[in-house]
Amino acid sequence: MIKNCKKYIQFMHTSYSRFSSLKSKAYDVIDHHYDAVIVGAGGAGLRSALELSKNKYKVACISKLFPTRSHTVAAQGGINAALGNMTEDDWRWHAYDTIKGSDWLGDQNAIHYMCREA
């Protein structure tokens, strides 16, 4: 197992060295080093980046969109919960809206759990 890991590391180093030696005339290539790279700047991604940075980790958060247009912000109704504190409300209605919003493709057991416990 350790021999395989060493071979893999050597292979990756060789592959990286081959590409890192290429010079671009259009712009300078700058290497970045991070303890963690988070893909996605939605609520979970940004929360993870915040917590890691609080614990002194060097973090990069990569998103295909500007963070204010991430899926969490652009979601159909934002982040909701059936509270029942102003009008009659029920977690089942919240679950139905969530399942319908996912075009019936969401994990219905997970959606039921999330809505019931919200």
How would you characterize the overall build of this protein?
This protein has a two-stranded parallel ribbon with strand order 1-2. The chain is built from five helices and two strands. Helix 4 runs antiparallel to helix 5. The chain is mostly helical and 118 residues long. It comes from Plasmodium malariae. GO terms for molecular function: electron transfer activity; flavin adenine dinucleotide binding; succinate dehydrogenase (quinone) activity. This is FAD binding domain containing protein, putative.
Any chance you could write out the topology, listing elements then pairs?
Elements: H1 2-20, E1 36-39, H2 43-54, E2 59-62, H3 71-74, H4 91-101, H5 108-117
Parallel strand pairs: 1-2
Helix pairs in contact: 4-5
Protein name: FAD binding domain containing protein, putative
GO biological process, one term: mitochondrial electron transport, succinate to ubiquinone
Domain FAD-dependent oxidoreductase 2 FAD-binding: 35-118
